[in-house]
Amino acid sequence: MNRRQFLKRGSALTLGAGALAGVAPTGVFAADDPTIRLALIGCGGRGTGAVDNALSVPGDGPTTLHAMADLAPEKMEAAERSLQKKHGRKIDVSASRKFVGFDAYRHAIDSLRPGDVAMCTTRAYIRPVHVEYAIRRGINVFFEKPFASDPGGLHRLLRALEEAERKNVKIAAGFQCRHSPARAALIDRIRAGEMGEILLIRANRLGGAGWLGPQGAKSNDLRSQLQFGRSHLFWVGSGQMVDNLIHQVDECCWIKDAWPVEVVGMGGRAANSTDCGQNIDVYSMEYTFADGTRAFCGFRRMKGARSDFATYIHGTRCAAQFSGNVHAATVHQFKDQRIARDHIAWTPARDAFSPWQYEWNHFIENIRQDRPHNELKRAVYSDLATLMGRAACHTGQTVTWDDIMKSRFQFCDYLDTLTDDSPPPVRADAQGRFPVPVPGQWTET
User: Fold this and answer.
1) Domain co-membership, 192 together with 158
2) What's the total number of domains in the chain?
3) What is the average per-residue pLDDT within 145-165?
4) In the 8-state DSSP scheme, what is residue 17?
5) 411 and 361 within one domain
6) Which residues pair with 98 in a beta bridge?
7) Which of 127, 168, 303, 413 to pair with 365, CA 20 to 30 A apart?
8) In this structure, are 87 and 107 located in the same domain?
9) Is 362 left (phi over 0), alpha (psi -120 to 50) or beta?
């Protein structure tokens, strides 16, 4: 199920409500008010879907949406109306707790107390600023992927890790597939040697997508870039490949229980491209791990071509499928290297919830039980691995783990002082076209 379509799911997520029933509030929630209050920072589809999941966690402990923040008040109001229809009184956002502007995140986080959750779901460019502030205030964090647009932003998050651990701040990252029991069952079989040595992983996200048309006078306006540039400008949202394929790269690292030591890549644009954005249309990356194992990760946005949205594993004994379309828990181990329905040897029990719901079930339970829950480092490392692949394709060079760990490259180095009058970090030419990576000339590490 796709959480962005949460209004169409009805009451399906109430199944298995007894899973967390009877969980007694402990730790910070031992007081007379066990309510977990949420502050939604970034009120688009991902943020609204995450609130739906948070408010659908089964169990007795109350959770409410307490504050909202966004650059666009109309987006905030639309999100509130949608959530109100489904969750009623759980949406408790007074007019005084709706904040607009570049500093809105501060006011939203300041309205929370220890034990509450700041939901950092804006465009990737500003995520490190928001997460860092929430940690400083001792507030739990849910943050969506991508976690930053560049290595500099990701290393800023890593620098906040020590403070988060010292303050026992709980942090959940938007890698929902890590919470799928079906996938975890296959991981257990891999660790037990059921597939033999893992020699190859193939992870693809191949589909169709639209190009960015000319934006006219809006092209070089900062606020406008933040609206149309989410997937079209690298500084805003990390680019379309990273925004989408980051899940598959994370799955490769999870399967290997390791980070890649290097990556080579290539890609290009369609011959008839009229795209004004910065993305290329094809990315092909070959990751190498320390033991020599390869992971091939592919991304393509071309209509009318073959589609594939899955991760496959090949061991010395057999092959397996780890995930399927729209992050479905399509998990099978096969009899040999042939990936086909008539060669399935093992399939785990079906997941009872969507991965997005499992993610929040686990997060809320660990907050209430005051158990450790900090996914920041692992999430940032997977994002760094994905940026390695982006850089390899854009520059035409081999990019190593050491390269990305040393890099402090930023597309925008004045994030903390952004206003409506700030200059945009990237500008379109007279035809409205933004700069596109050219191997041998491009730099982003």
Assistant:
1) no
2) 2
3) 98
4) G
5) no
6) 68
7) 127
8) yes
9) alpha
Domain hosting residue 396, numbered range: 180-353+383-417
Give the burial string for 44-70 (b: 16+ CB within 10 Å, else e). Answer: bbbbbbbbbbbbbbbbebebbbbbbbb
Report if residue 46 sits inside a domain. yes
The model's pLDDT over 300-357, given as tens digits with 9 standing for 90+, comes to 999 889 999 999 999 999 999 999 999 999 999 999 999 999 999 999 999 999 999 9
Give 4's pLDDT tier (boundaries 50, 70, 90).
very low
The answer to whether residues 37 and 143 belong to one domain is yes
Q: Quick one: 214 and 344 in the same domain?
A: yes
Instruction: Tell me the pLDDT tens digit for each residue of 259-271.
Output: 999 999 999 999 9
- Position 86 scores a pLDDT of 97
DSSP secondary structure, 190-253, as one string? HHTTTT-SEEEEEEEEEE--PPPPP-GGGTT-HHHHHHHTTTT-HHHHS-HHHHHHHHHHHHHH
Tokens of 78: 């639309």
pLDDT single digits (tens) 223-272: 999 999 999 999 999 999 999 999 999 999 999 999 999 999 999 999 99
Q: Tens digits of per-residue pLDDT, 270-300?
A: 999 999 999 999 999 999 999 999 999 999 9
Asked if 208 and 179 touch (Cβ cutoff 8 Å), the reply is no
Kindly report the CATH number assigned to the domain that includes residue 271.
3.30.360.10
Look at the chain and count its residues. 445
Regarding whether 341 and 246 lie in a shared domain, the answer is yes
27 and 172 in a single domain? The answer is yes
Report pLDDT for 179. Answer: 98
For residue 28, what pLDDT band results from cuts at 50, 70 and 90? low
How far apart, in Å, are the Cα atoms of 221 and each of 228, 275, 296, 302, 366? Answer: 11, 19, 38, 29, 43
Place of tokens 């290997």: 256
pLDDT of 20 over the 60 cut: no
- Is-contact 419 102, C-beta < 8 A? yes
- Pick the closest to residue 392 from 352, 439, 441 (CA basis): 439
Joined together, the tokens standing for residue 296 give 């091939």
Per-residue pLDDT reduced to its tens digit, 195-208: 999 999 999 999 98
Give CA–CA dist 43/75, Å, rounded.
Answer: 6
Does any domain span residue 364?
Answer: yes
Query: Is residue 137 classed exposed, middle or buried when 0-12, 13-18 and 19+ CB atoms within 10 A define those classes?
Result: middle
Check which CATH number belongs to the domain holding 160 and give it. Answer: 3.40.50.720
> Residues 210, 347: one domain?
yes
Only one residue has tokens 């008539």, namely 342
203 in a structural domain? yes
Residue 301 covered by a domain? yes
The enclosing H or E element of 300 equals: strand 294-301
